[in-house]
Amino acid sequence: MSGSLNDEVLLRLAEAPSAYDPIGDGERLIVTNRYVLFLGRGDDPGFNTVQHLRLSPPAVDKAVDEVRALASKHGRRALTWEVASSARPPDLAGRLRAFGMVPAEPPLAVVMALLEPPPRAPAGVAVSRVETVGDFRTFVSITHEVFGKMDRLADELARIDREGARDLADTRFVRYLAWIDGDAVAAAAASFTNVGAVLHSGGTKAAARGRGAYRALVAARWDDAVRRGTPRVVTRAGPMSCPILGRTGFQKIAEIELLVDRFG
User: Is residue 83 part of a domain?
Assistant: First the structure.
């Protein structure tokens, strides 16, 4: 085991993964001792987040104005404020709702951590890293299908054709495919940092669920974290993935209330 579930470093990795992720073209990262602001590509609030909130009660109003001004400066008009159970002040979510912020969909995320080896991949499931543009196209086709974003798939495939090779060259962010009977049926990713790995975007095609592909992807990413000398893994879990992650050894370390902020 490396660390414990109340380890502050682990908690920061779980609450503010954007502070550790590689920053791509068109993205911005602003890190302070009060918040972490990540501005992704585009104006969707799901891609623009405020994390790891540590504010004094009198400073909340100023922080909201400051963050909105920074987002506006970079052409963003919508954010998601991620209010973790460890955020300060304790009534921060209520204070933010007073600014007109509303619950996201889904409104809550569970942060989970894995500090011990998970169950091994079942027989008949193979996992590979995404290393070619062709596999990258397969990866995003699966993730867009699983997460109901097919309306964005064509644009993302076109972007991958232009920029995919450069994305794949960044070894801090690794994508994976799980295969059954020669078909790619599941996809997942991980960011590798100097303190641990953050798991992203795990999902399995509906027809292949229940056959161990998701579990195999967890095991593959754990193995890569161990090889890099950082045997700790964190992730965000929704209602569907939370029970599966629990069965693979993940434990809950925090809850995050997600509030959408549209302004400007």
Answer: yes
